[in-house]
Amino acid sequence: MNFLVTGGAGYIGSVVATRLLEEGHGVTVLDDLSTGHFDAVPEGASFVESKVHDAGAALAGRHFDGVVHLAASSLVAESIADPEKYHANNVVGTRLLLDALRDIGVGRLVFSSTAAVYGEPETVPIDEDAPTRPVNPYGASKLAVDQMLAEEAQAGELGAVSLRYFNVAGAYAGRGERHSPESHLVPIALEAAIGLRQGLAIYGQDYPTPDGTCVRDYIHVADLADAHLVALDVIRPGHHRVYNLGNGAGFSVREVLAAVEEVTGVELEVDLAGRRPGDPAVLVASAERARRELGWEPTRPALEQMIGDAWQVLRERAGRS
Length: 321
Ligand code: UDP
What we know:
By secondary structure, this protein is of the alpha/beta class. The protein is about 40% helix and about 20% strand. The chain has helices spanning about 10-20, 55-60, 75-80, 85-105, 135-155, 185-195, 220-235, 255-265, 290-295, 305-315, and strands at about 1-5, 25-30, 45-50, 65-70, 110-115, 160-165, 165-170, 200-205, 215, 220, 240-245, 250, 270-275, 280-285. The longest helix has 21 residues, at about 85-105. The structure holds uridine-5'-diphosphate. Uridine-5'-diphosphate binds near residues 185 and 216.
């Protein structure tokens, strides 16, 4: 089949595009390269450089069997400082993309949503029926799109799935995290280990967790990508369904850093800093619905494998292997 991947030059999108190609599908990547990298677009994919806002003109006359929509602004801190950007790119951009898709007759869409829609959870693990109370404009913008998709599906022919990612890590087929600036724990710790930055900070040591640092559920980017492939298969016209994607296991910031030291053999220089605004204490997924309804089973649940795969790609990029 023939699929469109918006944001396919980014970290997760380029792995989704790679996995679709590996399964024998045709892939077109649409990306404005504002944060993505052209060299991450896999060989064999067609590339369209465009904002999702301009997808109508960029995709006129093309045919796709389905779309994976990942193009978005995705920095929590930036969203607090500049909420308008998140409304414009994530909400308005998706609205215009949906209009364009309707015009070219595409009725199947997988959307990259986020655990940030849940805010500070009352209970963990978090399932899809948990209250959605985002604590930052990034989470709010993704929730607005989830709701838009549900309403659009109910009203017509669109079939959609929202995948709510927990903490994505690891690398696949040479594709790892390359954000600028980098804000995520695993790549920051690995950059410190390889000497690209001087140590790192732990944000907050007084959370109500066993060691006082935040607990997160880490999922390998290849496992995450595979969920998009099975989601494309189960979408039914007129229906919208939400799935959480995680491993159901929580690791504290200190545990992640210990695993990074173990994998790299480097002792990290760590600063103890204050809490980062907008960080909930614990985010751990219940991905039972995805297992049950999608038959999705993560095959790389070990934190050491995620860190090891990311480490290998970083070393290659830095010319150290
Ligand atoms: N974190 C940290 N130091 C860093 C980056 C992140 O202590 O340099 C913490 C952050 O406060 C959070 C956890 O690591 O508790 C995971 O953060 P990340 O940005 O990787 O993902 P998020 O959970 O915010 O999506």
